[in-house]
Specification:
Blueprint lengths: L2 E19 L2 E15 L4 E6 L12 H18 L5 H8 L6 H18 L4 H5 L5 E3 L2 E3 L5 H14 L3 E5 L6 H10 L4 E5 L9 H10 L2 E5 L7 H8 L5 E4 L6 H10 L4 E4 L1 H4 L2 H13 L4 E3 L6 H11 L22 E2 L9 E3 L9 E2 L1 H7 E8 L1
Parallel strand pairs: 5-6, 6-7, 7-8, 8-9, 9-10, 10-11
Antiparallel strand pairs: 1-2, 1-15, 2-3, 4-13, 12-14
Helix pairs in contact: 1-3, 2-3, 5-6
Bound molecules: 2-succinylbenzoate (OSB) and magnesium ion (MG).
Length: 371
């Protein structure tokens, strides 16, 4: 493929309700969108999941804008021919910057799939037509509010919930949700909020209230603490922030620190690495699932396609458009289907149309790059 132009947009969308995690409250998302246009007029989109503040990881919208705008896009436009693989190889010499790399690689995958006339899911080797999903529930103002929020999501059709927890918001909220919904599949996610010494307390409430999975309770590098928690646990120990590449996955597997893998393309630097990690985990008997970063419909479409691959056997953190934003950037929006599923779009590329009207309203800044 040869590129004709590229555009880097900065957008802001308001969430339908604030999303609170152990690292803070998000009311809106400011993020980057990469748009690539090929010589023959095809267009591919990729979304960058870095946020304004370096709270989930060290990247930010600003660092990603710098990498994409001053290095990745100018380099792509100078190249005679581009592909997801050649970009991955050419950008490997830059340390980290995985969210920035992933935004570009996903746009290239969208373009590559379109040029072959297949969907992104098919291009990656996925076969599913629908993917099973759950919903990630932020920290709420009170325990009754949480029980109501979970009840609303169950009413919408979601079959598993992931409750955000942190020290001081764990045993009691989890117990209340368990009592209100005795058969519900409950996962929890702490985003690294606990000291490693908290393992035995986490274990006791997670066990008592039938939590099926505990995600990233300890710091990114606390592999041994996660292994201690996983030893003999009646729940899966899922790693999110700890797994950023093949090496970190291998070390976590060897240490027995991981019994479930949350795959986010932004965190690991792109869709082809995401696929490789999920395949490797499956070889070692560890199930994978696709995580979310409150993406707009564009990033979520990429994630839905990824989730159509065989190694992703647990329900994804990919909810319907209306759970995130009042107006999504795509048409049609994602809607929850039977059995707590989202449909994998069938058309070429990401298989959804971009709503240029919503995009224009959400856009704060745009830079165009030409050959
Ligand atoms: O840890 O999974 C996480 C959102 C922002 C940052 C980190 C996480 C999340 C979520 C949201 O849990 C999941 C979603 O997009 O539905
Ligand atoms: Mg997480």
């Amino acid at each position: 493929m040869e590129l004709r132009s590229a555009r880097l947009d900065e957008l802001e969308l308001d969430l339908v309700e604030p999303f609170e995690t152990s690292f803070g409250v998000e009311k809106r998302r400011r993020f980057l969108l990469v748009r690539l246009e090929s010589k023959d007029g095809l267009v591919g989109y990729g979304e960058c999941v870095a946020s304004s503040e370096p709270l989930y990881s060290s990247e930010t919208t600003a660092t990603a804008r710098e990498m994409i705008g001053t290095r990745f896009l100018p380099q792509l436009l100078r190249a005679r021919s581009v592909s997801p693989e050649s970009f991955r190889e050419a950008s490997a010499r830059y340390r980290g910057q995985r969210m920035a790399k992933s935004a570009v690689e996903t746009a290239l995958v969208d373009l590559a799939a379109r040029s072959e006339g297949v969907s992104v899911g098919r291009w990656l080797g996925g076969r599913r037509r629908r993917v099973e999903v759950g919903v990630s529930v932020g920290i709420q103002p009170s325990v009754p509010a949480l029980v109501r929020r979970v009840g609303d999501y169950l009413g919408d059709g979601y079959r598993r919930v992931k409750l955000k927890v942190r020290p001081g918001w764990d045993a009691i909220p989890v117990r209340s949700v368990r009592r209100a919904y005795p058969d519900l599949e409950i996962w929890v996610d702490a985003n690294q909020a606990y000291p490693t010494a908290a393992g035995s307390r986490i274990r006791s409430w997670a066990e008592a209230y039938g939590v099926a999975q505990v995600e990233q309770p300890f710091a990114e590098r606390a592999i041994r603490a996660h292994a201690d928690l996983a030893k003999g646990a009646p729940f899966r120990v899922c790693l999110d922030e700890s797994i950023v590449d093949e090496v970190s996955l291998e070390d976590a597997l060897a240490a027995g620190a991981i019994t479930s893998l949350n795959v986010k393309t932004g965190r690991v630097g792109g869709p082809t690495t995401s696929r490789a990690l999920a395949r490797r985990a499956r070889q070692r008997g560890v199930p994978s699932w696709v995580g979310g970063m409150l993406e707009s419909g564009i990033g979520r479409a990429h994630n839905v396609h990824l989730a159509s691959l065989a190694p992703f056997t647990l329900p994804a953190d990919l909810s319907a458009s209306d759970r995130y934003y009042r107006e999504d950037l795509i048409d049609p929006p994602f809607e929850l289907g039977p059995g707590s599923t989202l449909e994998v779009p069938r058309g070429p590329g990401i298989g959804v149309e971009i709503r240029e009207d919503v995009l224009r309203r959400a856009r704060l800044d745009a830079h165009t790059f030409r050959r």
